[in-house]
Amino acid sequence: MNCNNTANHSIGCTVEKCKFHCNESNYCTLSKVSIGTHETNPTECQCVDCESFVAKN
Ligand code: SF4
After folding, report:
1. CA separation for the pair 51, 35 (Å, rounded)
2. pTM here?
3. Residue pLDDT, tens place only, 1-57
4. pLDDT value of position 3
5. Is residue 20 a contact partner of residue 52, using CB atoms and an 8 Å limit?
6. Cα 16 to ligand 1 centre (Å)
7. Residue closest by Cα to atom 5 of ligand 1
8. Which residues surround ligand 1 with Cβ inside 6 Å?
9. Centroid of ligand 1 to alpha carbon of 47 (angstroms)
10. How many angstroms separate the CA atoms of 33 and 53, rounded?
């Protein structure tokens, strides 16, 4: 799929296993994503998640 015209250049992303990832370039194709944390007290980058992630089939 060519998604360069739908890549959102405001949302860089390298999660190629996500169905919303633009395969040709490291961007998300959604217009908006939701970011959250699974930690009570997040202290580092690894504590934060993209909650819009959906696994590719
Ligand atoms: S939904 Fe989140 S994880 Fe998926 S491509 Fe967009 S930014 Fe990346």
Report:
1. 5
2. 0.89
3. 567 789 999 999 999 999 999 988 999 999 999 999 999 999 999 999 999 999 998
4. 77
5. yes
6. 9
7. 21
8. 11, 13, 15, 18, 20-21, 28, 30, 33, 50, 52-53
9. 16
10. 9
